[in-house]
Amino acid sequence: MQTEIRKFKRHITGEELIAACDREGFPCQSRKYLEEGSDHIRFGFEHGGVYVTALYNTVSGRAFGEYELPKRTRPLGDKGVEFSTDDKLDGTPWFDALLSFLYVA
Fold it and tell me: Whole-model pTM?
């Protein structure tokens, strides 16, 4: 994953993540970041029917969490799959969209 992230100039700030989630209608739990000085923000993200719940580190720009494939394409009873932005998922549409959401080109 390191080579993909190097294509970006920088990761977004916490304030930029909060604004982007608000703009896109994604859930964002920013209270601890805004009120307590936490360096993590929990947020949701969706692309192409893939739903992501992640924890974003505002210092490092890394995110980790789980993603769920669209119900019609996953086996019955299948739960979320863990991921991090360090994973080698380049070329996966939802992952590339997530990177574009978290990093400035």
Answer: 0.86
